[in-house]
Amino acid sequence: MSPTTAATLETPPTTRHTKRHLLSSADLDRDQIKAILDTAAEMHTVQSREVKKLPTLRGRTVVNLFFEDSTRTRSSFEIAGKWLSADVINVSAKGSSTSKGESLRDTVLTIAAMGVDALVIRHSASGAAHQVAQWVDAHVVNAGDGMHEHPTQALLDAYSMQQRLGDLEGRHVAIVGDLTHSRVVRSNLITLRTLGAKVTLVAPPTLMPSGIGAWAASDGFELSHDLDAVLPTADAVMMLRVQRERMSGGFFPTAREYTVGYGLTRPRLETLTRANPDAVICHPGPMNRGLEIAADAADAAQSLVLDQVSAGVAVRMSVLYHLLSGEETQS
Ligand code: CP
């Protein structure tokens, strides 16, 4: 797809990706990712307008169905839909009939029966979004399914890195931390490799997912247990949250030992900056400050943490636009 202009954002795209849903980062090839990121760049200009509103999705209804907590993803999908003039409804497990025992299928069919155009779903079960897409005619966007995937997070991460680093082809991205419990890492791996980035996954042996070696060997990314060895060659360092709520056992002896081995501490920030003054730091949030990332690194000039949040709105506007806009004109 050729880049859209601000003027054409108010009309349907001339070319759009052919998938009905966005369930996995693997749904998108390189051209489709680039089309979404190009449109996101145009959508980003809306944030600085006095009137933050495009008529693009007027008359469309988007339901955010969140069965897990969220600050960034839910708010940014809501803002994205509203800035595109869609009607946006938020449904969360707490306060819905789910708390009375209604099943996921019945909840989804009930909402779909109201005539919604898109369902944005977050659920603790891996595969939930795929399952929902089989039950409804509405477009489905995966806003995080268990430890499986978070495709719009990977898109906004790629967008944020690209804004600072330019084309990600050949750039070295280190993804560091709790790989085992992360849905962000899987989606980022797919998107970054599709864009031609070099990726190194860094984690203690206890937090390296089983089977990752075979994937790394077939796809050509690296694995390491030594953050200090990887940092000097990194263009971007993506720190992952230690997901204690998903841990059933002891994955590291103490928080202090984890930070010593795998935290982006002030000395490591200095190493990174000395080796590559243009290197950037990402974190999908929410952050455990002082555990996987020191405040010095989270708030450093190299940190993209708030850029990622801002990009989240633009990228989700772009995703909704590509899925929904001009749909009635498609064969
Ligand atoms: N990164 C992310 O998904 O954050 P939330 O859980 O706040 O949505």
UniProtKB/TrEMBL annotation:
<keyword id="KW-0665">Pyrimidine biosynthesis</keyword>
<comment type="similarity">
    <text>Belongs to the aspartate/ornithine carbamoyltransferase superfamily. ATCase family.</text>
</comment>
<feature type="binding site">
    <location>
        <position position="150"/>
    </location>
    <ligand>
        <name>carbamoyl phosphate</name>
    </ligand>
</feature>
<feature type="domain" description="Aspartate/ornithine carbamoyltransferase carbamoyl-P binding">
    <location>
        <begin position="20"/>
        <end position="163"/>
    </location>
</feature>
<feature type="binding site">
    <location>
        <position position="241"/>
    </location>
    <ligand>
        <name>L-aspartate</name>
    </ligand>
</feature>
<feature type="domain" description="Aspartate/ornithine carbamoyltransferase Asp/Orn-binding">
    <location>
        <begin position="170"/>
        <end position="323"/>
    </location>
</feature>
<feature type="binding site">
    <location>
        <position position="122"/>
    </location>
    <ligand>
        <name>carbamoyl phosphate</name>
    </ligand>
</feature>
<feature type="binding site">
    <location>
        <position position="285"/>
    </location>
    <ligand>
        <name>carbamoyl phosphate</name>
    </ligand>
</feature>
<feature type="binding site">
    <location>
        <position position="72"/>
    </location>
    <ligand>
        <name>carbamoyl phosphate</name>
    </ligand>
</feature>
<dbReference type="GO" id="GO:0006520">
    <property type="term" value="P:amino acid metabolic process"/>
</dbReference>
<dbReference type="GO" id="GO:0044205">
    <property type="term" value="P:'de novo' UMP biosynthetic process"/>
</dbReference>
<dbReference type="GO" id="GO:0016597">
    <property type="term" value="F:amino acid binding"/>
</dbReference>
<dbReference type="Pfam" id="PF02729">
    <property type="entry name" value="OTCace_N"/>
</dbReference>
<protein>
    <recommendedName>
        <fullName>Aspartate carbamoyltransferase</fullName>
        <ecNumber>2.1.3.2</ecNumber>
    </recommendedName>
</protein>
<comment type="subunit">
    <text>Heterododecamer (2C3:3R2) of six catalytic PyrB chains organized as two trimers (C3), and six regulatory PyrI chains organized as three dimers (R2).</text>
</comment>
<dbReference type="InterPro" id="IPR006131">
    <property type="entry name" value="Asp_carbamoyltransf_Asp/Orn-bd"/>
</dbReference>
<comment type="function">
    <text>Catalyzes the condensation of carbamoyl phosphate and aspartate to form carbamoyl aspartate and inorganic phosphate, the committed step in the de novo pyrimidine nucleotide biosynthesis pathway.</text>
</comment>
<keyword id="KW-0808">Transferase</keyword>
<dbReference type="InterPro" id="IPR006130">
    <property type="entry name" value="Asp/Orn_carbamoylTrfase"/>
</dbReference>
<dbReference type="InterPro" id="IPR036901">
    <property type="entry name" value="Asp/Orn_carbamoylTrfase_sf"/>
</dbReference>
<feature type="binding site">
    <location>
        <position position="100"/>
    </location>
    <ligand>
        <name>L-aspartate</name>
    </ligand>
</feature>
<feature type="binding site">
    <location>
        <position position="183"/>
    </location>
    <ligand>
        <name>L-aspartate</name>
    </ligand>
</feature>
<comment type="pathway">
    <text>Pyrimidine metabolism; UMP biosynthesis via de novo pathway; (S)-dihydroorotate from bicarbonate: step 2/3.</text>
</comment>
<dbReference type="InterPro" id="IPR006132">
    <property type="entry name" value="Asp/Orn_carbamoyltranf_P-bd"/>
</dbReference>
<dbReference type="InterPro" id="IPR002082">
    <property type="entry name" value="Asp_carbamoyltransf"/>
</dbReference>
<feature type="binding site">
    <location>
        <position position="286"/>
    </location>
    <ligand>
        <name>carbamoyl phosphate</name>
    </ligand>
</feature>
<feature type="binding site">
    <location>
        <position position="73"/>
    </location>
    <ligand>
        <name>carbamoyl phosphate</name>
    </ligand>
</feature>
<dbReference type="GO" id="GO:0004070">
    <property type="term" value="F:aspartate carbamoyltransferase activity"/>
</dbReference>
<dbReference type="GO" id="GO:0005829">
    <property type="term" value="C:cytosol"/>
</dbReference>
<dbReference type="Pfam" id="PF00185">
    <property type="entry name" value="OTCace"/>
</dbReference>
<dbReference type="GO" id="GO:0006207">
    <property type="term" value="P:'de novo' pyrimidine nucleobase biosynthetic process"/>
</dbReference>
<feature type="binding site">
    <location>
        <position position="153"/>
    </location>
    <ligand>
        <name>carbamoyl phosphate</name>
    </ligand>
</feature>
